[in-house]
Amino acid sequence: MKVELLKYTEGGIELVAQSARVSGVPGGMSDEEIVRMIVENDYSSALEHISFTFNLSGISVALSRELLEHRIASHTARSTRYQEEEDFGYYIPTEILKNKRALENYKKAMRELSKTYVELRDMGISRESRRYVLPMAVHTNYVWTVNARSLINFLGLRLCVRASPEIRELAKKIRDIVVKIYPEIFESVECRGKIMSVCPENEVRDSPQGKDCPYKIRSSKAFIPTKRDVRGRKDW
User: Fold this and answer.
1) Could you list the active site residues?
2) Domain extent for 35
3) CATH at 160
């Protein structure tokens, strides 16, 4: 997987601060202070004036389907209708990589699908029809444009330990890029629980997918309560 930043809104901190001043913010605050206040308090509509465009390559079709759930963004994908996929690359889940026998079977299935794709071509079948034998694991290329507000939402969801491993890897790579450009916006952005200081995952945080969550151990200083924990408090 490769994430390349193609373009972003330069001068974004000044732009967001100017936009926020239109609606009214306390006087005497610097641009950076205004932006940090906006992020901290989730007064985030002004963040929509900043956008990023990424080239995402080596991601699976399965991951691209998850990206489509983030609809406040612009999506352009490699077309299997117009592009040949004879020697397609593909994603291998970590769980399969760790199991030698499963990995052999997985690769065998991919070779068979690739062979079938070529055989159908030799039979005169069009790309439009041949593409239906391609697996969800096949690599695709994606150009994705997203504003800063929607990107915070994406990162909050996809940095969670319960997110699928491939899209979590993508979220980490994207965060590494944007935090260097606008730390005022993104340095405090992690999973939703960390952002809000309350985890909306509730009891599913204790599911097998959530076993590595660093915020669910009650004896830890990093503990973050769930929404149900907060609702059950007696001192409210």
Assistant:
1) 158
2) 2-76+141-192
3) 3.30.1360.170
